[in-house]
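User: Show me sequence and structure for the first protein, then do the same for the second.

Assistant: Starting with the first protein.
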Amino acid sequence: MGRVALTRVTKRFGEVTAVSDITLEVEDQEFLVLLGPSGCGKSTVLRLIAGLESPTDGSIEIGDRVVNGVEPKERDVAMVFQSYALYPQMTARRNIEFPLKNQRTPKLERARRVEEVAETLELTEVLDRRPAQMSGGQRQRVALARAIVRRPEAFLMDEPLSNLDAKLRTQTRTELIELQRRLATTVVYVTHDQVEGMTMGHRVAVMENGVIQQVGAPTEIYDHPANLFVAGFIGNPPMNVLTGLPTSEDGRLAIETPGGGIPLTAPQQDAVRRSGATQVAVGVRPEHIRLDEDGPLRASVAVIEALGYENHVVCRLEDGQQVIVRLRAEVAAPREGDKVHLGAEPRRLHLFDATTGARIGT
């Protein structure tokens, strides 16, 4: 069983708390992504699972046993690093078989398993090359092969695609997804790249400042972010967030911003009243906001980002708050400097307490 579970795990380095009271369970054969900005503690979580760091508090289970105090080599996990960590003097074949030699696997069995994994990862032709004679993508696949050949209970991957160029990163991302499905194995994958997180993981755990902010399927996190941090971190372009004051007129509540009042549905109004928030952050995805002559928000067009398949119309309110509108390429875009009105369906709005960051309503 490749189950991995952390229960109330904390890790401190002196006065610094790198990981705070994390409880997380990774199911057998699940691909779970730890996603967050640099320095949020996600790599520390991976090192704690691997045994390269010891928790200050809490327990860690791999399979059906608690591994606190168990040496890394006894944990039956394989780690893939950002830097490949290959032995430069060894060929790809010797790099891949190295963990099997440490396990005293018989020579014929070693050779069979190396050939098998090399064929799976399309490395057969480079088995006799040293790392310096291989491309970045080949070196990364050798590092993966070295982990796979051990057949561990779980794979731990620490930003393994960061050193690849954009095209190769996309290709290798697809290969990793297919590989995990073929091997039917457990993967805990660390990245700061939200595209990797949203496309690769069965579930995503979003971290900030050593704390897990939300765990869920990628679509759940995108459609229902738990707080203002998750809302702003997930999405490319990111969610538009406008801060305003709850204002009542004729018994109807709206959020008044420098660009105008944002109307709310009756349930949204009730939720804002119940929350007691004195400032409300209104979030709306760029694809859910539109250029609308009758829209309630006044703005000016600052920049048009032409991407070929679509245009990003970057607008600013009077106080400088930015709003990005996503337009299909075939839709006529305004010109830079134009005055425009913006609108969105109220059901597409996400409401947050601007002070605490907590989500308001469902």
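Switching to the second protein now.
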Amino acid sequence: MTAIITGASRGIGAAIAETFAENDINVIINFLSHEWEAKALRDKLNTKAGKNIAEICKSDVSNPEDVLRLKNFCNEIFGECDILINNAGISLQKLITQTTTDEWDRLFDVNVKGVYLMTNAVLPEMINRKSGVIINISSVWGISGASCEVAYSASKASVIGFTKALSRELGPSGIRVNCIAPGVIDTPMTQVHSPETLADLCGETPLCRIGKPFDIAEAALYLAKADFMTGQVLTVDGGII
């Protein structure tokens, strides 16, 4: 089995790569800006497995040429992609009245267009095999919305709609499409919050803690194996919504 994991040099993507490799799934670690972290993760996973189970590929998921190169790289190294994890994403904390058109477009280019491009890249081979798994990483804010994060919430809501519609379209081809909606997770993306804000978010979470990247990775591994689940949005949020 082979998985492409976008945005996998650190945070949730890195945790998914590590969890999958520990379960003998080959992983392509996609990155754009954090090459050192991606290389360190690859070396760690290969050393731990005692074989070449991980490789890295730099590409921008919002760029069609980069996406095609990533897919072809996967085919050359490990063979066709069995599992696609659309994890790459960016955030933006701004009032909607202060959000520029360029900021809005960039957010949707990565968070939504990137999911579309990556999915379309691997689909022909999945449809031909009549098997495959696509797991999209959204957010609880794509369900409930978040003040001062309208653009981000809207992009993540789009990912949920994409997941539900695509699951119906691809079900007859034996391809499962599901979504994970993380809550507040301890990643570089949440480090923009002040300690006071994080403490408040902990207080609002029934489990009284911030989630860990491996909480999401365990959910991704479950969805990769759950053969009768498709079109679902799995919230991993400590009960915050």
